[in-house]
Design goal:
Helix 3 runs parallel beside helix 4 (131-138). The strands form 4 sheets. Strands 1, 2, 3, 5, 6, 9, 15, 18, 19, 20, 21 and 22 form a 12-stranded mixed β-sheet that branches. Strands 10, 11, 12, 13, 14 and 23 form a 6-stranded antiparallel β-sheet that branches. A hairpin with a 2-residue loop joins strand 2 (78-85) and strand 3. This protein has helices spanning 2-26, 34-37, 111-119, 131-138, 147-150, 171-180, 330-333, and strands at 57-61, 78-85, 88-95, 102-103, 123-126, 144-146, 155-157, 167-170, 206-207, 210-213, 223-228, 233-238, 241-242, 253-254, 256-262, 264-266, 273-275, 281-287, 290-299, 302-307, 310-311, 319-325, 334-337. With 338 residues, the chain is of the alpha+beta class. 19% of the residues lie in helices and 32% in strands.
């Protein structure tokens, strides 16, 4: 009798354990809390502002002198400045933590702009395209809206400038385009950027309080930065004229300036370029009034400052990234003074 009683007791315990186990297994898995994941803005390292989970948008912004001052550059988390043709640069502005009411003037796409938008999982905004960019967009590599198809509807022309320097899009129209194209609207990527907790950790040994980045001999496309030791920010100007927002008159101020060397090749008689962004190269980092020689790498297509293969930390705030040709290289393209 004692053996039978023991067997019944063991069976009851095992049955209870099994019932509890299957109850646990049947519970719904917890959804990851997006608010927790994005308490820090992924591309600025600053406190995220609700709604923090908005999808990244990348817009091509005109940098011709007739397009200045631009609208919406001050809100961009990152601005990539790259050659569009000859020595003429164009901006690719990344928005995630903050969105302006309007962006522009919007200009035409290049294939390397589309590549970056794909890598950053961004909704891509442009007005026009080069032949190779057109092929990429038609193939559906990125969710996008283009002014060629929506001129006068989602894209509006200002009357104070002439085409192609007067095409603008509002954030409301970007949202409408996302809805029309059935694009997702939430951030689902993973930022490759790392940030310091405080400015004290970001101080570099070699001072660089004034920085100039050139793309050739055309001074109309040379960026000049001046460091303010009180705000720890760099103010940008071109030819002594501060870079400001057309609507708010606010000046562009950034926490980090990065200069990346990349091979360029002229494609056609229009001076359009091919830029190699897959293999990394030499780089300079300016932050906290100092300068450091580093490298840059491609992390799943995203451009990241690195040293010995590891990401280099940035100062929380906005970042301007210059992509300059390896020939003549940074020795000719970048100058700075203590």
């Amino acid at each position: 009798m004692k053996n039978w009683g023991f067997a019944i007791l063991v069976s009851a315990v095992l049955a209870a354990f099994a019932a509890g186990f299957w109850l646990i297994m049947k519970e719904e898995p917890e959804e990851p809390a997006m608010e927790e994941a994005l308490t820090v803005a992924p591309f600025t390292g600053e406190q995220a502002v609700s709604p923090a989970n908005r999808r990244t948008v990348m817009a091509v912004i005109n940098n011709h002198p007739d397009a200045r001052p631009q609208t919406g550059l001050t809100e961009a988390d990152i601005v990539f400045e790259m050659i569009a043709e000859y020595e003429i640069t164009r901006f690719l502005a990344l928005y995630q933590s903050d969105f302006p009411e309007a962006i522009g003037p919007i200009r035409s796409a290049r294939n390397y702009f589309v590549e970056l938008a794909e890598a950053y999982d961004a909704f891509f905004v442009a007005h026009g395209y080069s032949p190779d960019a057109h092929v990429m967009l038609e193939s559906g590599v990125v969710d996008h809206v283009n002014g060629i198809q929506h001129d006068g509807t989602l894209f509006q022309r200002s009357t104070d400038r002439v085409a192609p320097h007067n095409s603008y899009i509002s954030t409301d129209s970007v949202e409408k385009a996302m809805d029309t194209t059935q694009a997702f609207t939430e951030y689902r990527g993973k930022s490759p950027y790392h940030f310091y907790d405080s400015m004290e950790n970001a101080k570099l040994n070699e001072q660089a309080l004034s920085v100039k980045v050139e793309y050739g001999t055309n001074e109309l496309f040379s960026s000049e930065y001046t460091y303010d030791s009180q705000s720890h920010l760099y103010s940008r100007s071109v030819g002594g004229v501060p870079t400001t927002d057309k609507e708010s008159l606010e000046s562009v101020k950034v926490s980090n300036i990065l200069v990346f060397e990349a091979p360029h090749r002229t494609n056609d008689a229009e001076g359009r370029q091919s830029i190699e962004l897959a293999n990394g190269g030499a780089a300079l980092l300016f932050q906290g009034g100092g300068v450091r020689e580093i490298e840059w790498s491609s992390h799943s297509g995203m451009l990241v400052p690195t040293a010995a293969g590891e990401p280099v930390k940035l100062v929380p705030g906005k970042t301007w990234i210059h992509i300059v040709p390896t020939a003549p290289g940074m020795a000719q393209s970048v100058s700075y003074t203590p």
